[in-house]
Amino acid sequence: MVARPRPKLSLPWVLHVTLGMLLCAFPLFDILGFERAFASSLLVAFTSPIVGIRWTYGHPERSPWRLFCEALSLNTAMLLPSVLFGSIVELVKTPCNPTQGLVFFLLLGVCNAAFGTALGLWAAKFRIRALRFGFVILTLASFLGAALWRLYAEPQIFAYSTPFGYWPGSLYDEALEVSTGLWAFRAYSTALTLALVTALGLLNTGKPRYAFGLALCIASATLAYREGGKLGFGYDRSSLRSALARHVQTEHFDIYVDPSISQASLRELVSDHEFRYAQLKDFFKEEPDGRITSFVYRDVRQKQRLMGAGRTQIARPWER
After folding, report:
1. What is the pTM for the complete model shown?
2. How far is Cα 39 from Cα 161, in angstroms, rounded to an integer?
3. How far is the C-alpha of 93 from the C-alpha of 258, rounded, in Å?
4. Cα dist. 106→174, 190, 197 in Å?
């Protein structure tokens, strides 16, 4: 009996070890925090499908769930060098919050690895190598394009993406915390990942239990996605206008304000908007075409939650 060659997984390992060491040279990325978890999770988003593909071809007789669990274990292990190097730097420097750093690795790195593993298992269905990797690249590019379009089209500067994790928007704010929105989003993306693996099991075996599991996963993912605005990861322009429900129109502005504002403060706010407009018009000797939309938040925490920048002032020119 001819022994089957073991899957070649040395390249992903080398990439993760190299990245873990390189991050030690950069401030913020050197310690066990969000920045290191974010960088490592981006890499695992690309390496985990490769591991899923190669593990499937190395063990074609195994069930999709077994393949998924084994390949995911390998992909999770590849994050350990980055965790180790970050922990060493934490020991040398003043520790920030290593526990929270580990949670970021779980919610970003491990969840990215889970989706990438499932994607790799599906890609392994293609017999032609170019089609396998083309399928992976096209899927990842589609998710990335959707996230970038949302960043362009909506006022929010944060981004949630199933294969790539979470970008908080502004890194200038003093502290990045694990939010309830991130937990909720990862519950949604986990349901989506499990749906992919269950669908593969149904395709391979046709057993009714896979059909029931698939229906349950799809229902859970759909419900979570539809309630994304309430759960904290699906905010958009309508979410802002709903939360900042006090709407005032002036000569040059559409101002949306939190309803808690007093009438006196609202008059002062309106006056200040028009005064600053006049100052800028006088300075530049010209003015913009059309009206300007202004969102005014109750406090830093509300602003951070709704659009992604707590103490940072941000305006994108194309958003008026």
Report:
1. 0.88
2. 14
3. 42
4. 22, 12, 20
Residue 309 sits in the same domain as residue 198: no
* Whole-number Å distance between alpha carbons of 303 and 209: 45
* Positive or negative: CA dihedral 204, 205, 208, 213: negative
- Tokens 């928007």 sit on residue: 169
Last residue of a domain, one of 181, 208, 238: 238
73 near 114, Cβ under 8 Å?
A: no
In a domain, 137, yes or no: yes
Residue 208 belongs to what domain range?
10-238
Two structure tokens written together for 198: 């269950």
pLDDT (tens place) for every residue of the chain, 320 residues total: 444 556 678 899 999 999 999 999 998 899 888 999 999 999 999 999 999 999 999 998 899 999 999 999 999 999 999 999 999 998 887 666 778 889 999 999 999 999 999 999 999 999 898 999 999 999 999 999 999 999 899 988 899 999 999 998 766 555 677 889 999 999 999 999 999 999 999 998 888 888 999 999 999 999 999 999 889 899 998 999 999 999 999 999 999 999 999 999 999 999 999 999 999 999 999 998 888 989 999 998 899 889 888 887 777 778 76
CA atoms of 101 and 124, how far apart (whole Å): 33
Clarify whether residues 223 and 259 are in a common domain. Answer: no
Residue given tokens 């690309």 in the structure block: 46
Distance between CA atoms of residues 308 and 302, nearest Å: 9
Tokens of 304: 């951070």
Q: 51: closest CA among 144, 126, 114, 134?
A: 114
Tokens matching residue 6:
């073991």
Q: Which residues, including other chains, have CB under 8 Å from residue 181's CB and lie 6 or more apart?
A: 160, 231, 232, 233, 305
Torsion sign (Cα): 271, 265, 174, 182: negative
